[in-house]
Every structure is written in structure tokens, then in C-alpha cells.
Design a protein that fits this description.
alpha+beta; DNA Polymerase III, Chain A, domain 2; PX Domain; 3 domains; 5-stranded antiparallel beta sheet; 4-stranded antiparallel beta sheet; 14 helices; 15 strands; about 35% helix; extended
Length: about 425
């Protein structure tokens, strides 16, 4: 598939059909928009399997075809492009490319194929339903280039992003990379040459990177307090002559637009956006020679110690890693009788206690005498003593009595049922 269309018309067509698109779906393909190039028009189709919207706009069709792309991400990318004509073509390997429109020098490929049972077939008849059926996620790589911005923008999964940037890396092996983001001003093409400083101390999916338009020599001269001030304070709140550090977080799990090959940024484009590649390379050499700041970054991003919440309340106490999630999935498949004998081996200390409480609440017959005593002690601490700020049974009874004074007949019935329930679950002393 290949066509040319103005940015304004493309954006208008996308915006008219994206309203039924949800990012919270169990079928990733439903987050996509179907693009069909045919008969001098581009047809846009979206659906949530209950409601579907179809619209079309005029375009110059060079090769008919169809593909799907993530709707909301595509809108945000197109919106950031300068006003110009955009050329779109589909690559069989990369599954979704938007390429420069004028000189025709960028290679392109025909309509993508979906695979089933070892066979190739073009996405053709009823392509939206085929895409849903296949569970295909088009646009594993998206490349955008327009008349005013010929940069390659890659939209990748976290692992592919890390691979593109050569992560994890050593200080000696680290290399600069191109990063395209709306956080950079449009005057510089929304792009920058960045250098990886370190992985975020508490979030392995976050990379701390330095904007190589600036000299990093000052970094090792700053103490923890100064780094915090210049990273987390607003520019208006900084003393005169002090500027925020050009450090940006690149979130690997949010499909950032990154390119490791700096040659993608041509000399002409660098000049247009006033980007000095030679200066960036010189600053990269300085950054490569900086002392190890791992311990300092850990202190900079260290949070104040908060009271440890009960594991049942620790909703935001950190994400569960892949290995522990796999162990939990395996436990859920076990019969109740085997839960008591399963060796969990969790890396997250919270999970062992949560599994014990899961057994106690749902399969009390699997508890031995010692575990029964432990469970009853926990219930006494929470329900009778109000441990950890929990609402005790007595406090609940007092609230019910207060509410009952002004309750109508229906309200009294509800409060009475609640009173009976609390009384029934209260531990015996």
C-alpha cells in the first residue's frame, strides 16, 4: 500500500473515528485503526466490537492496500508533524512505515502479509476481522518522515527499545542516540541527541539520559542536594543563573521514539533544526569519561521512608516482576490441597504473606494448627485492636449506632444486617 495525503486531511480522518478506540482492551488490535487505500480515498475504520465507525478522505493512491496502526499513537505522531504532505507506504517486514514524500528515494514494500499455519496471505477481504482474529499488532516499527522532518521514529516494545539502545550497557560501551519527543520544543524538530547516563535506581524500565546539546562536565561536581534541586524544581523556583539539568527520562515500556544510528540525522536536517552533531559527539566523549555515579543517582531518587503498609493495603508498593507473576499463575492452577505444600520461592517478600491469607480466606481447611493460630492473631489485631489504622469492630458498631439515629426504616434494615455481619466475623477471645 502506498498513498500521499496532506497532514490536515489525514489527521481529520483519524480524529473522526478514534472515539470508539480504547487503550484498555484485552484485544490489542481493537486499539488500532484500519486504513484502506482504494479508489482515490483512504478509508478509516475503528471498532470496539459493539460499535464501529467508518470514514474516508481523498488521497493520491499509488498502490491500493490495507493495514492497521495504533490509532491514538498515530494521531499524536501526525499531530506533531509540520504542515505538509505525508507519504505512507507499508513494509512487509516492519509492517507500517510512513516515509518522505518528495524524492522517492526511500525504499518501500507491498501490502503486509499475515501468517497462519505456515502460509502467507495478503490482508485483503474483511481485513479488520482478520486482524482481530489473528490478534496481529501492526506497527511494530513506525517510521515517519515529512517534508520538514525526515527523522526515523521507531515505536518498539520495551525489549526492542533496550536492544535498539544497546542496553544494558557499560559506561565504556554506552553510545549516544536520537530521541524524538514532544518534551523537546518544535523549534528543534522535537528531537535531541541523548546519552544514556544510568538506569533509574528504582525503575528498570526508565533510562536517565543527558541532552548532548549541553556539556555534562558539571555533573560530577554537583552533590545530591544540588542534583535534586536542579532536577525536580521548576525553573521559576531556581536561583538566578541556575538552570535545570538537561536530564530526561526515557521510559522503555512506553514505546519511545529512539534511533541508535546517528547517521539517520542527516547533515541537512541537523542544520535545519540547529543541531550540532560534532558538538554532541564531543559532549558524548565527556559523558563517557564521567566517574561512576550509580550511588549518587540512588541517593538522588531515594524516597523518604514511609510506614510499611499491611500487604493487603500495599496496592502501590511496587510492581510484581515477571518471575513472581509466573509463580502466582502456577499457584492459581493448583488444587486447594496442594497450596499448603507448594514451595513458592517468591522474590517479593509480600507475596508469601498474601498467599497465606488467600488460603486462610478461601481454603481454611488447608491451614494447620500453627497457621490457624497465626490467622486468628491477625484477625484479632485488625478487627478488635485496629492495628495499622484498620476500622475495628467496636468502631464500626459505634458508627452504625450513630447512623441509625437518623436512618429510615430501610436504612435501619441495612444497618442491622451490617451489624449482624460484623458480629458474625468478629474473632472469639
Amino acid at each position: 500500500m502506498k498513498f500521499r495525503i496532506s497532514k490536515e486531511a489525514f489527521l481529520d480522518g483519524l480524529q473522526k473515528v478514534q472515539h470508539v478506540v480504547s487503550s484498555r482492551t484485552t484485544l490489542p488490535i481493537l486499539s488500532n485503526v484500519l486504513l484502506v487505500a482504494k479508489d482515490g480515498r483512504i478509508q478509516f475504520t475503528t471498532t470496539d466490537l459493539d460499535v464501529g465507525i467508518t470514514g474516508s478522505v481523498e488521497a493520491q493512491i499509488e498502490k491500493e492496500g490495507a493495514t492497521t496502526l495504533p490509532a491514538k499513537r498515530l494521531v499524536s505522531i501526525i499531530r506533531e508533524l509540520p504542515s505538509s504532505e505525508v507519504e505512507v507506504s507499508v513494509d512487509t517486514r516492519l509492517f507500517g512505515r510512513l516515509l518522505r514524500h518528495r524524492d522517492g528515494s526511500t525504499p518501500h514494500a507491498p501490502l503486509p502479509f499475515s501468517r497462519r499455519k505456515g502460509q502467507q496471505r495478503p490482508v485483503g477481504i474483511d481485513p479488520l476481522h482478520e486482524a482481530v482474529e489473528d490478534g496481529a499488532m501492526a506497527a511494530s516499527v513506525v517510521r515517519l518522515e515529512s517534508e520538514d522532518a525526515q527523522a526515523a521514529h521507531q515505536v518498539l516494545a520495551p525489549g526492542r527499545v533496550a536492544q535498539e539502545l544497546g542496553l544494558p550497557t557499560t559506561q565504556q560501551a554506552a553510545r549516544p542516540f536520537l530521541h524524538i519527543s514532544g518534551m523537546f520544543p518544535a523549534e528543534r524538530g522535537c528531537l535531541a541527541i541523548m546519552y544514556p547516563l544510568a538506569t533509574h535506581p528504582t525503575n528498570k524500565n526508565e533510562l536517565l539520559a543527558w541532552d548532548l546539546a549541553h556539556d555534562p562536565n558539571e555533573l560530577p561536581l554537583l552533590d545530591v542536594a544540588s542534583l535534586r534541586q536542579r532536577l525536580f524544581s521548576k525553573s521559576a523556583d531556581l536561583p538566578d543563573g541556575v538552570h535545570r539539568l538537561p536530564v530526561k527520562s526515557v521510559h522503555l515500556n512506553k514505546s519511545p521514539m529512539v534511533v541508535r544510528n546517528l547517521d539517520t540525522l542527516t547533515a541537512e536536517m541537523a542544520a535545519r533544526w540547529n543541531i550540532d552533531k560534532s558538538l554532541a559527539q564531543a559532549h558524548a566523549t565527556v559523558a563517557r569519561g564521567l566517574p561512576d555515579m550509580s550511588a549518587i543517582w540512588a541517593e538522588v531518587f531515594k524516597r523518604a521512608v514511609e510506614p510499611v503498609a499491611d500487604v493487603d493495603e500495599a496496592l502501590y508498593g511496587g510492581f510484581i516482576d515477571t518471575a513472581d507473576r509466573r509463580r502466582l499463575d502456577q499457584l492459581r492452577m493448583l488444587p486447594a490441597a496442594e497450596l499448603a505444600h507448594s514451595r513458592t520461592g517468591f522474590d517479593d517478600a509480600r507475596l508469601s504473606e498474601l498467599v497465606f491469607r488467600y488460603r486462610a480466606r478461601n481454603f481454611p481447611a488447608t491451614l494447620n494448627d500453627e497457621e490457624n493460630q497465626r490467622w486468628e492473631a491477625h484477625r484479632v489485631a485488625r478487627l478488635l485492636e485496629g492495628e495499622g489504622g484498620a476500622r475495628s469492630v467496636d468502631a464500626l458498631f459505634a458508627e452504625i449506632d450513630t447512623l441509625a439515629e437518623k436512618a429510615d426504616e430501610q436504612g435501619e434494615a441495612i444497618l442491622g444486617a451490617l451489624y449482624d455481619y460484623a458480629e458474625a466475623i468478629a474473632p472469639d477471645l
